[in-house]
Specification:
This protein folds into 2 domains: 27-41 and 153-238, Translation Initiation Factor IF3 (2-Layer Sandwich); 44-99 and 108-150, Protein of unknown function (DUF541), domain 2 (Alpha-Beta Plaits, 2-Layer Sandwich). A hairpin with a 5-residue loop joins strand 3 (86-101) and strand 4. Strands 1, 6, 7 and 8 form a 4-stranded antiparallel beta sheet that branches. 21% of the residues are buried. Helix content is 34%, strand content 44%. It has 4 helices and 8 strands, in the order αββαββαβαβββ. It is α+β, with helices and mostly antiparallel strands.
Length: 239
């Protein structure tokens, strides 16, 4: 029994002595982040266009909505927009109440049904955006909420941004090591982080200017630059 107890104590002692040695062999790390952004011109736009109808019955609301949406689709086709560039993004039927008060102070409640049909329209010729909006509205569309600009070269731009983000992080690591008077060692890990808002796995933001229809000029939409961003995190050993 005594021999077993001594053996256990010896094992515990050896582990306690080796623990600091193991800790000393673990690499000390410098963790840095890098970021970069690349701007490029948009070459594609996605428009959200819809038809909203309200009628006393579901059938009336849906029938009118279908007629108007078919007219909108015909107008888009006349402009050369192909079927694969027109996708239904939302179709919703709901019941609503209109409240009103008469001159005698009596409250009335009228039930109606609301049908909302939205399509996502991809436009490859940016000079055509205003025409698409005007034609859709003239044909019966009565909602439009948002235009998203994009580029077919976003992936290429992301590769450039990613390279620059790594270079940014490497430079930061060198500056930190020099300032701390330590020797920068092996690169231990590297990770690309995603932005809070992402598209295709990387951050994309865009801007555009809108000018309302004035006289016979038509709606004018002007695209701004698209910004593709990348973020990375690097970990270096140092001595």
């Amino acid at each position: 029994m005594m021999k077993k107890l001594m053996a256990v104590c010896l094992a515990v002692l050896l582990l306690s002595l080796s623990a600091p040695a193991l800790a000393e062999n673990e690499p000390r790390l410098i963790r840095v982040s890098g970021s970069a952004a690349v701007s490029l011109a948009a070459d594609t736009a996605t428009l959200q266009i819809g038809v909203n109808t309200k009628k006393p019955t579901v059938m009336e609301a849906q029938k009118e909505n279908a007629a108007l949406m078919n007219a909108v689709l015909d107008a888009l086709h006349e402009l050369g927009i192909e079927d694969q560039d027109i996708v239904t993004s939302q179709f919703n039927v709901s019941s609503q109440y209109d409240y009103s008060v008469s001159s005698f102070g009596q409250e009335t409640r009228t039930l109606y049904y609301d049908v909302q049909n939205n399509v996502s329209v991809t436009v490859h010729d940016l000079t055509q955006i205003g025409q698409v909006l005007d034609a859709a509205m003239e044909a019966g569309a009565n909602t439009s909420y948002g235009i998203t600009f994009s580029s077919t070269k976003e992936n290429e731009a992301y590769q450039k941004a990613l390279t620059r983000a790594v270079e940014d992080a490497m430079q930061k690591a060198s500056v930190l090591a020099a300032a701390a008077k330590v020797q920068l060692g092996e690169l231990m890990s590297i990770n690309a982080t995603q932005n809070q808002y992402t598209l295709g796995g990387y951050g994309v933001s865009n801007t555009y200017a809108y000018e309302a229809k004035a006289m016979d000029r038509g709606t004018v939409i002007t695209s701004g630059d698209i910004t593709v961003s990348a973020d990375v995190v690097l970990e270096y050993a140092f001595q």
